[in-house]
């Protein structure tokens, strides 16, 4: 019973770790595309099709 509970905890930790890495890949994509997350009121930049953590920012090419 003790081994079963330890395996369950390990499985939960692995699932959370794997989903966390997948979620952060979306935000790192902006940097990989040569851009940076800037506020929406930034003028004179071309917007890239990548996501930023904040909904008030967009991926802007530097």
Protein topology:
Blueprint: H1 2-32, E1 35-39, E2 57-61
Antiparallel strand pairs: 1-2
Can you characterise this structure?
- This protein has 62 residues and is of the alpha+beta class.
- The chain has one domain (2-61).
- It is built from 1 helix and 2 strands.
- Strands 1-2 form a two-stranded antiparallel ribbon.
- The longest helix is centred in the first third of the chain and has 31 residues, at 2-32.
- The radius of gyration is 18 Å and the shape is rod-shaped.
- The protein starts with a helix and ends with a strand.
- The mean pLDDT is 77.
- Order of adjacent strands in the largest pleated sheet: 1-2
Unreliable segments (pLDDT under 50, ≥5 consecutive)?
A: none
Helix/strand-derived class?
alpha+beta
- Discrete helix count: 1
Describe the structure concisely.
The protein is an alpha+beta fold.
Summary keywords:
62 residues; alpha+beta; two-stranded antiparallel sheet; 1 helix; rod-shaped
């Amino acid at each position: 019973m003790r081994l079963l509970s330890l395996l369950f905890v390990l499985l939960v930790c692995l699932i959370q770790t794997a989903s966390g890495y997948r979620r952060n890949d979306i935000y790192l994509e902006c940097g990989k595309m040569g851009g940076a997350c800037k506020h929406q009121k930034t003028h004179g930049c071309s917007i890239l099709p990548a996501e930023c953590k904040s909904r008030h920012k967009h991926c802007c090419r530097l």
